[in-house]
Every structure is written in structure tokens, then in C-alpha cells.
Amino acid sequence: MVRIADARPEDARALAEVHVAAWRETYAGLLPDRALDTLSVPERTALWRRVMEGGGWVIAARDGGRIVGFVSGGPARDGDLPAATGEIVALYLLKAHHGRGHGKALFTAACRRLARDGCRGLALWVLAGNPTRGFYRRRGGTADKAEDDVVAGTRVRAVRYVWPHLPG
Fold first, then answer.
1. Where is the N-acetyltransferase domain (predicted)?
2. What number of helices (H) and strands (E) belong to the chain?
């Protein structure tokens, strides 16, 4: 049974392990192997610890106590979005847990958290080649913008999905 709950700073290493593994699973073929090979669990551990100790939030999916996915967000960073728009900055789930409802549960938990924080709309960015883009479309997201970005030293195309109202 999966349990969705706030992560704590002591979960930073487990979050980092999921982050690195999910990048390698999801972005194989989209990013060069050298970029994926250099991903660092210690660097991501420090990142997630800083996020949580700095007042940011992370919600984790635990299966049998083990973190298998997570979501993090906050106020939208893009200046062209309406006021009170929230953003999902990261949503990662180990591939072995796809199709079990864990991603939907994390997405829903993030929307609830953003609503509690006063957000009314939602935005997120995803790589154009990411095979999980359909997940966001099925939840009512509309692609409204695409931009080139550099991820792990590689130029990629990213697509922004928006929801004028937070999904229920």
C-alpha cells in the first residue's frame, strides 16, 4: 500500500536516489549517457535537504516505507503567468511504480498543497520528448509554450503545461 506524506530532511538521501534513478529511466535516449552517468546522489541529497530546510516542501510516495516517488513545488517562477499560479517543479516516480496510481496521488497531493498555499492555477515544465507528457494531458493540462533549455549540458526542448484552475 502506497502512503503519500510530507518528506522530511532526513529523507533527502532517499529522495536523491529516486531522483537520479528516475532521471536515468526517463531521460535515457533524451539526454546523453554521459550526462546521466554523472548524476550524483550526494549532490541531489544536498539539494533536497536545502529545499526542505529552507522552507520548501516535498511530498513522498512510500511503498512499504521505501520512497518510490516524490513531488515538489511552490509559486510559479514564470512572470507571464497569472498571479496565484503554482508550479510543480519536480515529480518523479520509479518506473516500476508507474501505472499503479502513485503518480496521480502525488499530483493530487501537490495540487492540494498549492491550494492550501493560496494558489489557484498550475503550471509545470516537461521535456518535449518525455514519454510521460500524456500523464499531464490526461489531467487536463494544456501545452501553452515551448522553449529551448539546457539540461545537464544538453540543449533540449521543454514544454509548459498550464491549468487555469488547480485540478481537483
1. 2-166
2. 5, 7
Instruction: Classify 85 as helix, strand or coil.
Output: strand
Query: Does 137 map to a domain?
Result: no
3-state secondary structure of 147: strand
Quick check: is 82 in a domain?
yes
What is the span of the domain harbouring residue 7?
A: 2-120
Number of domains in the chain: 1
Burial of 2 (0-12, 13-18, 19+ CB in 10 A): middle
Residue with cell 522553449: 147
Q: Cell numbers 536515468 correspond to what residue?
A: 24
pLDDT truncated to tens, each residue of the chain (168 aa)?
Answer: 899 999 999 999 999 999 999 999 999 988 899 889 999 999 999 999 999 999 999 999 999 999 999 999 999 999 999 999 999 999 999 999 999 999 999 999 999 999 999 999 999 999 999 988 999 999 999 999 999 988 878 899 999 999 999 997
58 lies in some domain: yes
- Identify whether the C-beta of residue 140 lies closer than 8 Å to the C-beta of residue 163: yes
- Per this entry, what is the length of the chain? 168
CATH code, 66: 3.40.630.30
